[in-house]
Q: What sequence folds into this?
């Protein structure tokens, strides 16, 4: 068990599925990959800005983002417009920490797809309520957020006129290129810059995530601080003491043994969007050239009543990484009932967190017995610092495991193919 910044990583049960000594035998290769990353070399080297980002964010930048967030308190609703890497991290952090802080606007997300019903719900939620928009797009040309933003901007202009609308909009985009940058400069929006050397799925600790999270009243300094502390821990040369490297090495070796799908399982439903963020991070980084672990996710115990059957007993290609939270809400206790007709008195006086933890322990043992190598990441409580640490650990891990696979973890050439077909049909 390796404990770093409140996150405990245990790979010992998974190790049983590997040839003896395999993890330690990979140590030199992992160290070589890490050295290459630290030196700014190798495939995708132009997108390594995330590597030292948490420790490099200066106080002036944090203060500017905080000030933007503080100004947003006037609004009842804050609509974040973006997709993929310009969306998932923000929502993941927000939901894992229980939503906006008291006294801060309701946060809605738009531009996350092309579903008219979803966008309609957002438009209904802002009806008659004062709202601000934070539009996030590095390229400035992504169809989904661009369409949503056009509609929201039109609504703001209808209410406040062109100048007034501009005062309700924050744009997070490239420093000089793209349609959104041009529009923002022309209209005079408040803007924040997405660094050139940070790709979408690695951008949650840039203004992409920090500006809307500040608007939600979350402690962005603690989030960045947790990531910075984890960055230090993940820079060490000893594989067994470096959580990102240990996690990357273990899952990579399991993949080589035929465990080609990694299921991230949680018993804490507020982590569902962290799972979605993780799926994008790992899926887009590794899935190329006919290679890569397929990232999937389950939320237990809900999914034990559906996908649990497959995990326990289906095709033996699954490895499972548990992401579990020991304490969520302390005060929920099973009451005693004299009649005990439901037979639950054996649980009376016990907290739901305690019962949930036993469900986790039992499930993990059952899956191990069923032939699923299980890794676990356990935290005591979710805090901004812990979440920041987790985000960074996963970023570093995917960079290492992508390079171990021999792919460029920082590009996503495959995502262009559907766009070509879609745009041809739309007559672009
Ligand atoms: O990881 C990625 O690069 C993608 O998910 C992008 O973030 C996503 O497509 C949104 O792109 P953009 O920020 O350019 O609108």
A:
């Amino acid at each position: 068990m390796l404990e770093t910044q409140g996150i405990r990583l245990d790979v010992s049960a998974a190790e049983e599925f590997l040839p003896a000594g395999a993890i330690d035998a990979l140590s030199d290769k992992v160290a070589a990959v890490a050295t290459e990353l630290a030196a700014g070399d190798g495939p995708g080297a132009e997108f390594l800005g995330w590597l030292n980002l948490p420790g490099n964010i200066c106080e002036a930048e944090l203060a500017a983002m905080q000030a933007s967030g503080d100004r947003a308190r006037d609004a009842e609703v804050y609509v974040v417009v973006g997709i993929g890497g310009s969306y998932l991290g923000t929502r993941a952090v927000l939901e894992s920490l229980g939503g906006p802080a008291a006294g801060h606007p309701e946060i809605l997300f738009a531009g996350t797809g092309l579903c008219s019903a979803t966008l309609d719900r957002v438009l209904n939620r802002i009806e008659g309520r004062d709202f601000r928009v934070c539009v996030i797009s590095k390229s400035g040309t992504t169809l989904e957020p661009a369409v949503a933003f056009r509609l929201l901007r039109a609504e703001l202009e209808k209410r406040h006129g062109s100048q007034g609308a501009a005062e309700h909009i924050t744009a997070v985009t490239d420093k000089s290129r793209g349609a959104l940058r041009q529009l923002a400069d022309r209209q005079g929006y408040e803007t924040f810059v997405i660094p050139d050397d940070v790709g979408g799925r690695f951008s949650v600790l840039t203004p992409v995530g920090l500006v809307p999270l500040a608007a939600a009243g979350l402690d962005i300094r603690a989030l960045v601080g947790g990531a910075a502390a984890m960055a230090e821990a993940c820079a060490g040369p000893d594989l067994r003491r470096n959580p990102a490297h240990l996690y990357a090495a273990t899952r990579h070796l399991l993949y080589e043994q035929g465990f080609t799908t990694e299921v991230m399982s949680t018993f804490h439903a507020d982590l569902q969007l962290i799972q979605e963020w993780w799926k994008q991070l790992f899926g887009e980084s590794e899935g190329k050239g006919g290679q890569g672990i397929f990232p999937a996710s389950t939320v237990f115990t809900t999914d034990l009543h559906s996908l649990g059957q497959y995990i326990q007993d289906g095709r033996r290609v699954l490895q499972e990484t548990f992401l579990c939270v020991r304490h969520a809400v302390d005060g929920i206790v099973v009451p005693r009932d004299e009649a005990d007709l439901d037979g639950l008195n054996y649980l009376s006086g016990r907290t739901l967190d305690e019962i949930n933890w036993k469900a986790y322990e039992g499930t993990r043992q059952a899956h191990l017995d069923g032939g699923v190598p299980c890794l676990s990441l356990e935290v005591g409580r979710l805090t901004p610092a812990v979440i920041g640490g987790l985000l960074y650990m996963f970023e570093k891990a995917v960079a290492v495991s992508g390079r171990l696979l021999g792919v460029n973890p920082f590009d996503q050439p495959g995502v262009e193919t559907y766009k070509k077909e879609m745009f041809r049909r739309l007559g672009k």
Q: What stands out?
A: Residues 336 and 345 are 6 Å apart (CA to CA).
